[in-house]
From TrEMBL, chains A, B, C, D, E, F, G:
Described purpose of this protein according to its UniProt entry: Together with the chaperonin GroEL, plays an essential role in assisting protein folding. The GroEL-GroES system forms a nano-cage that allows encapsulation of the non-native substrate proteins and provides a physical environment optimized to promote and accelerate protein folding. GroES binds to the apical surface of the GroEL ring, thereby capping the opening of the GroEL channel.
The keyword Chaperone is annotated on this UniProt entry: yes
Name used for this protein in its record: Co-chaperonin GroES
Cell compartments where the protein resides: Cytoplasm
GO CC list: cytoplasm
Source species of the chain: Nitritalea halalkaliphila LW7
Source superkingdom: Bacteria
Length: 92, 92, 92, 92, 92, 92, 92
C-alpha cells in the first residue's frame, strides 16, 4: 500500500487500483458479460465525509467499484483513482 | 446459500441468483410478455443502510428483483449480484 | 382474492388485476381515447411503507392504476403486478 | 354534480369536466392562441393529501386545470378526470 | 384594475398584462435583443402560498415577468395570465 | 450608480452592467478563450432572499457574473440585468 | 501566491492554476488517457460557504480540480479560476 500525501475532499476517497494478476490470486473473477464489471483496489486516503455523514470505508480497505468510477491521477509513477464513496460497491 | 466475505456499502445488498430450475419447483412462473420480468435470488450479505434508514431485507431472505438490477461479480466460481435495496421488489 | 406469501418492500403493493369482464359488471367503463387508461385490481399484499409514511391502501382494496404501472409476476398460474403505491390513482 | 364512490389517493382529485356550452354561459372564454388553455370542471372527490399537506380544493369547487392534466375514466356513462391538486390552477 | 372572482391555488398569481402603450408612458423600455424580455402586468388575485411560504406579491402590485410565463385565460373579454410567483422577476 | 424603483423578488438582484471601458481601468481583464467569461456590474437593488436565506450581496457591491446570466430590462435609457444571487460569482 | 481583492460568493473558491512546469517538479504526473484529468492550483480566496456548511479548503491550500471546472478570469495579468468547492477533488 502506497503512502501519499493527498487529502480527498468531503465524501471522496483515493483508491490504488489492484494489479491485474492480483485478481486471480484472490479467487475473485469478473465474468465476461455485457454488464458493467466492478474493479478492485485499496483505499489510500479518505475525506472527512459530508455534513453529518462520516465515511464508512477506511484507509487500507480493499474495495470494489464500478469500472468507470473516479478520476485518474498518478504520483511518483503510481496510478490512483479519486472517487466518491457512493461509487464504491463493497468492502471485501 | 454461499458464505462469502463481502460487505456491501450503505444500502447495497449482495444477492446470489437462483438457478433456473429452482423457479419451476417453487411454483413461481414468470410470464413471457414484453414487460420487464423479476428475478429471484437469496440475500448473502447486506450493508448498514443509509443514515437513519436501516435495511429491511436480511441475510437468507429470498427476494425478487428487476432483470437488469445490480452489478455482476463472481467469487470462487459462483456468480453474485450487488444491488441497492431499492432494486428489490419483494421478499417471498 | 388470492392468498400468496409475498411481502412487497417499502412502498410497494401487490395487485391482482381484475378480469376483463368484471369491468363491465361494476359499471366502470374506460373510454377509448388516446389518453392513458386506468386499470382495476385488488390489493393482495402491501409493504411497510417508507420511513414516516405508512401506506394508505389495505389488503382487499379495489384500486385503479395506470395501464403501464408495475412489474408483472405470476404464482400458481395467477398473474400479479407489483407496483409503488404512488402508481395507484384511487380506491373504488 | 355527480355522486360517485371513488376515493382518490394522496394529493389526487377527481374532477367532472364542465360541458362545452357551460363555458360561454359563465362568461369564461378561452382565447384561441398557441398557449396551453385551461379547462373548467367540478371537484367530485378529493384525497387526504400528502403528509402534513392537506388539500386546498373541496368537493363542489369549480376549478381550472391544464388541458392535458389527469387520467380519464368514466363511471355510469359519465367521464371524469383524476389529477394531482398541483395540476389545478385556480378555483373560480 | 379588474375585479374577478378567481382564487389562484397555492403559489399561483393572476396577472392582468399591461397594455402595450402603457409601457412607454412609464419610462420602461424593453431593449430589442435576443435575450428573453420581461413583461409588465398588475396582480389581480393571489393564492395562499405553499406550506410555510406565504406569497410576497399583493393584489395591485405592478410586476415584471418572463415573456412565456403562465397560462392564458380570459374573463368578460379581458385576458389574464395565471402563473407561479417564482415566474415573477420584480415588483416595480 | 443609478436610482431605480424596482424591487427584485426573493433571491433576485438588479445589476447595472459596467461599461466596457471601465473594465480596463480597474485592471480586470477577461482572457479571450473558449470558456464562459464573467461580466462586471454594480448591484442596484436586492430582493429579500428566500426563506431563512438572506442575500449576501448589498446595494453598491461590484459583482462578477456569468455572461448569459439574468434577464435584460431597461429603464429611462439605462440597461439592467435582473438575476438570481446564485448567478453571481464574486464581489470585487 | 497572489494577493487579489476578490470575495467569492457562497461555496465558491478562487484558484490560481499552477504553471505547467511546476507539475513535474512536485512529482505529480497526469497520465495521458481518455479519462478527465485533474489540474493543480493554489486557493487564493474562499467564500463564506452555504448555510450551515462552512468551506473546507483554506487560502493557501494546493488543490486538485477537474480540467473543465470553474470560470476563467484574470487580474493584473494573472489568470484565475473561480469554482465551487464541490469541484475540488483533493488537497495535496
Amino acid at each position: 500500500m502506497s503512502n501519499v500525501n493527498i487529502k480527498p475532499l468531503a465524501d471522496r476517497v483515493l483508491v490504488e487500483p489492484a494489479a491485474a494478476e492480483e485478481k486471480t490470486a484472490s479467487g475473485l473473477f469478473i465474468p465476461d458479460t455485457a454488464k458493467e464489471k466492478p474493479q478492485k483496489g485499496t483505499v489510500i486516503a479518505v475525506g472527512n465525509g459530508k455534513k453529518d455523514e462520516p465515511l464508512t470505508v477506511k484507509v487500507g480497505d480493499t474495495v470494489l467499484y464500478g469500472k468507470y468510477s473516479g478520476t485518474e491521477l498518478s504520483f511518483d509513477g503510481q496510478d490512483y483513482l479519486i472517487m466518491r464513496e457512493a461509487d464504491i460497491l463493497a468492502i471485501i
